[in-house]
Fold each of these.
Amino acid sequence: MLTLWLKAFHIIGVVMWFAGLFYLPRLFVYHAEASEAPLRDRFKIMERRLLVMTHIGGAFAIAFGIATLAAEPFYLRAGWLHVKLVLVLLLVIYHGVLVKLVADFRQDRCGWTPHALRWFNEIPSVLLLASVILAVVKPF
Ligand code: HEM
């Protein structure tokens, strides 16, 4: 029963985390295309607030993922979990790049083009797809 609660909060954290991982880069695309100062200032506020929610979601997802693992330690030997943890590492790196981009946009010194940001925005979709299939289907 406890494990089900841990898993529920794990998934709530994953949803919150991905809301930010998906929408922050989209905001960056609009931000990079905006030329008027008041609009850019509005984007800076939105990005800062969304980043806080993304931090909270990421912390929940990882903390409750580890807690679920502590409750069901036999998964430590599962191949799907090992691959999922590598994907989680990539997600954490992606999250770190978002932090850097929020800081760069805040100082009006982000050099990425909207086109590059659009491609960057596709990365979390691939990681989400692979992680959820691994966790639910457990193919190996
Ligand atoms: C350090 C990070 C993480 C750890 C240690 C972790 C660990 C776990 C564990 C042990 C389970 C239980 C599996 C089961 O009982 O069937 C689980 C379930 C799940 N995880 Fe993670 N996870 C992490 C991150 C993530 C991420 C980033 C995602 C999505 C992108 C994710 C998606 C899921 C889903 C959808 C389930 C539910 C599977 C089911 O109940 O059928 N996890 N996770």
Amino acid sequence: MTATWTNWSGSVECRPAQQLEPASEEEVADAVRSAARENRTVRVWGSGHSFVPLCASDDVLVSLDRVAGIESVDAEQGEATILAGSKLHDLGEPLARHGLALENQGDVDVQSLAGAVSTGTHGTGRALGSLSTQVVALRMITGNGTLLEVTPADDDLLAASRVSLGALGVLTAIRLRLVPAYRLHERVWQEPIDTCLSRLDERIAATRHYEFFWYPRTGLAHGKALEPTDAAPDDMRGVEGERIDHSYNVFPTVRENRFNEMEYALPADEGPECFAAIRELMRTRHADVTWPVEYRTVAADGIDLSPACGRPTVAISIHQAAQLEHRAFFADAEPIFLAHGGRPHWGKMHSLRAPDLARLYPRWDHFCRVRDRLDPGGTFLNKHLRGLFVNRG
Ligand SMILES: Cc1cc2nc3c(=O)[nH]c(=O)nc-3n(C[C@H](O)[C@H](O)[C@H](O)COP(=O)(O)OP(=O)(O)OC[C@H]3O[C@@H](n4cnc5c(N)ncnc54)[C@H](O)[C@@H]3O)c2cc1C
């Protein structure tokens, strides 16, 4: 047995028999081949920022920290091939040197590229899809240890592999569609939640990236709006609640306090009513929870396991401090999300299993067929993933 592995929030712990840090695609393939031969399970972890046991392994646990860096850039095409273990915070400056940037980012940038892509990690913006929608090609080591290149022409495989929870193979390189480097003008403000809700549609429509956090104890919404700008950082120096900087410096925040989280992706029209129901739940049954509720938007896509598959989406997240009990609150909130047509964020807490998920995802069977083909022996299935993909009902 090697050392205990724990995720960021402390909600998942495992003691893998073997922890590996391959330094190349070939070494990844060797590790998968020998595990498959011995009927051992392989799980990969990136930064361990998922709240559910996606990465947990009693057998082999692999880190791709040494398979990191930018492999190649095609500035003219606006694309870069990036090794899968790269951390998002290591991409901003090198891409900017080529005049390129990620189109959108989430709240933090500590995730690995492969981890973020594999769970459909997203930021906010009505017209902007998750990071997975930016994937145009990739390489992975499949269940029998062979290298598979998924090219831009492989629509079928791309639809399955852009969000795959590490259940199809170990991603080793990801080619991303990028945009010309840009600066963002950030505005943050506070206002009563009812004022925020009365202007919600208008702000979502008018802003490239709009989101709010509602703090139940104060009743205030903390709004954030980001717009691309040609203005210089100095133009906003000293202005309260505003700043201008490179996009990759503006998107991420630093999360010093650990928490657990549940997030559901809803059809966009359901967002306001679902938020109202969660607000009522927190007023009546969980008034002790002081952590905020986050409200974001994501564009529709056609990725098999993307929570935004086939529909413009509102993502609502609830939180509780990592050291406090979250189960009763999340268990009460989940039926509300489901009643509004919600699909869970793959990296965040939920209780759904194969039969429930199959009903929520129009392309579920397609993903499962690809999974059976690329990993027929179940090398990548731990207990959590078996619950998601086996016994489909
Ligand atoms: C503080 C915090 C902030 C967050 N903010 C956001 C946000 O703004 N938006 C959002 O959508 N989510 C957010 N999340 C969720 C987070 O982005 C996802 O859980 C993401 O998967 C974490 O990336 P990771 O590198 O830590 O992946 P891990 O949790 O380590 O792994 C996630 C999944 O990816 C798989 N994986 C990792 N590497 C590989 C590989 N090389 N090949 C194949 N599979 C692989 C793992 O097996 C696992 O299934 C946040 C989480 C935290 C803790």
